[in-house]
Every structure is written in C-alpha cells, then in structure tokens.
Amino acid sequence: MIALGGLQIAHPVLNASGTLDALSAHAVLGDASLGCAAHVTKTITPLAREGNPAPRITEISCGLLNSIGLPGPGIDRFCAEVLPATAAIVDVPIVVSIGGFSIDDYALLADRLSPCPAAAAIELNLSCPNVKTGCLAIGSDVGETEAVTAAVRARFARPLFVKLAPGLADLASIARAAVAGGADALTLTNTARGMAMHRGTGEPLLGARTGGVSGPALRPQALAAVDAARAAVDIAIVGVGGIETADDARDYLAAGATAVAVGTAIFPDPGAPRRIAAGLVTP
Ligand SMILES: Cc1cc2nc3c(=O)[nH]c(=O)nc-3n(C[C@H](O)[C@H](O)[C@H](O)COP(=O)(O)O)c2cc1C
After folding, report:
1. pLDDT (mean) for 246-273
2. d(Cα 151, Cα 153) in Å, to the nearest integer?
3. pLDDT tens digits for 39-51?
4. Are 101 and 141 in contact (CB under 8 A)?
5. Tens of pLDDT along 11-59?
6. With a 6 A CB cut-off, is 243 part of the ligand 1 pocket?
7. pLDDT of residue 103
8. Per the residue annotation, which of 36, 62, 79, 128 is the catalytic one?
9. CATH code, domain carrying 259
10. Domain residue limits at 113
11. Does the pLDDT value for residue 81 go beyond 70?
C-alpha cells in the first residue's frame, strides 16, 4: 500500500480528472476504474454547466487540445446521483475533483462533500485553462491559493489534493501556499493553454478558440513542475502529463512524484493504466 497524502492506495497509478467516466466505462467495458488505484472524477462545479461551444477537442501533434469547459450536473445532483452511482461500481477510493469561480464556490463544494463518505478525498482544480474566471486565476495567485485551500481544509477532514497548472511563473511559492493552506498532496499538472488553426479557413479549430494541451507534448513541462515542486515542498505529489508507458511513469517518480495519473493515453487504450501499473512492478 502507498500513503498518498493520507489516502491509502494499492499502487501508484490513478486516472487524471476528466479522462475517465466511470459510469460509461462500466457500461461499455464492464470495468469502471480501468485498474487505477483510486478513481478521480471529472471536476464538479456548484451549479450545472453546459460547457464550451463545439468543437471541444482536436488532435494535435504529440497530444490533444481540449476545451471542454467543465460541463456537469452541479454539486447537488452529483452528490445525490453521480457519486452514489460511481461508488456502487468503483471498488477503489474516489477522489472528487472540484472547481469554482470564487473561494466561496470551493467552500460550498467542500460543505456538500464533507457528509458524503464516498468522497474519500478532494482534488481542488485550481488550474482549468478553459473557464474565464476562478480556477486558474485562483491557482496563479499565492494568497488566493492559500485562502482557497484553507477554506476547503476547514470544511473537509479527509485528504486534500491541490491541482496546479504547468508553466506557473512561481510554482514554488504557489506550492508552498497550498501546503500552508493545509494541502496533503499536489497534482501536477493540468493542461497547458494552447491553440490550433484550421489551415483552410484560418479559424481556430476549437469553438472556444483556445484549449488545453495534454499528452506527450505536455510531458516535459509537467515533469519540470514536479521537479520544481519537489524542491519546494515535502508533501506527496501526483505527476500527470503525457504518461503512456511505465517508463514515462518512472520519470515522474524519479523527479519526486509519489504517484502518477494517466489521462489522454486512456482514450486510444483503456488498458493503459493497468499496463503502466503492471510495468512499474516488473522492470
Ligand atoms: C478531455 C479532457 C478533459 C479534462 N477534464 C479535466 C477536468 O475536468 N478537471 C481537471 O482537473 N483536469 C482535466 N483534464 C486534465 C487532465 O486531468 C490532465 O491533467 C491532463 O490531461 C494532462 O494529463 P495527460 O497528458 O495524461 O492527459 C482534462 C483533460 C482532457 C484531455
């Protein structure tokens, strides 16, 4: 067993938020968690959201560009329907990713999740590049990062992860602020802001113009973020970004990550988390 910021997990491979819908995976593949040691949910927001205009996702060289925009049912339906349905089919701890547009939003989300034992941990998404306010703006500011983490810490007693963006000007200070606010672990990183153009029309390929880069294109940035955070803080770190193989995962562990999360690699290969976890135990 591994202690990941107080969360006991069987091995160091998780899914990245927003890349594995347990209910669909269960329905289509008969396998809700794809062998991950903990299941990380899609980021949930206080109110229901439609998300961004289509197209929301496109392939780029060495990865994906997405601008999903946090669609979801809102926290009340999540707690009443989605979380219990997920808990019924997922046999590993559930990490609920939360996102908001103000510190009060995050406090409300923590208040709602605190009485739900199925929420084994919370991951604060302070890094979504695809919404105009909150999230990334909060996680780019030292004082706001500490304040939002402390607000959730005061309301939620179980493990608390804070997910940050790549390419922050002063990641070390933001990481220390999360620790000062009471974070048990950092998740590094979310996608990096990017853009792709249609060569025929010269228009952006995504409906929201810009999106977030994931997959191998992100790996060097995310790896550097893990390295920088490890030098700054001593809490657990989940390394995320372009992990496709056990060797990719080993790079993150060597840089100081405690565990890793797999996202984009799941889309072409739902067997990826299980294969990577197996590869980590057999060199
Ligand atoms: C389609 C898609 C949806 C995502 N949704 C979320 C989300 O809701 N919350 C979040 O924190 N990160 C979200 N992410 C970012 C991933 O969790 C992860 O940080 C990022 O994709 C880098 O990992 P990867 O290169 O293995 O995909 C999303 C990524 C993709 C590709």
Report:
1. 98
2. 6
3. 999 999 999 999 9
4. no
5. 999 999 999 999 999 999 999 999 999 999 999 999 999 999 999 999 9
6. yes
7. 95
8. 128
9. 3.20.20.70
10. 2-281
11. yes
Tell me the two tokens of residue 78.
Answer: 């999540």
Token pair of 181 as six digits: 């606010």
**Per-residue pLDDT averaged across 140-144, rounded?**
95
DSSP line for 152-188: HHTT--S-EEEEE-TT-TTHHHHHHHHHHHT-SEEEE
DSSP letter at 55 equals P
Is 128 marked active-site?
yes
Backbone angles phi, psi at 71, to 5 degrees: -70, 150
Tell me the pLDDT of the chain averaged across its residues.
97
Collapsing DSSP to helix, strand or coil, 98 comes out as: strand
**Distant-in-sequence, close-in-space partners of 115: CB < 8 Å, separation ≥ 6:** none
Inter-residue contact 11 to 37 (CB < 8 Å):
yes
Torsion of CA 136, 138, 139, 141, to 10 degrees: 120
Is the beta carbon of 67 within 6 A of some atom in ligand 1? Answer: no
Peptide bond preceding 159: is omega within 30 degrees of 0, i.e. cis?
no
**What 3-state DSSP class applies to 37?**
coil
| Number of structural domains the chain divides into | 1
Q: What is the pLDDT of residues 147-157, one digit of tens each?
A: 999 999 999 99
Q: Which of 189, 210, 209 is nearest to 263 (CA)?
A: 189
User: What are the tokens at 122?
Assistant: 């919370």
**Residue 109 pLDDT greater than 90, yes or no:** yes
CB of 45 sitting under 6 A from ligand 1: no
- Residue closest via CA to ligand 1's atom 31 equals 264
- Residue 134 has what pLDDT? 82
Distance 199 CA to ligand 1 centre (A): 26
CA atoms of 236 and 100, how far apart (whole Å): 24
Q: Is it the case that residue 204 has pLDDT exceeding 80?
A: yes
Above 80 in pLDDT, residue 283? no
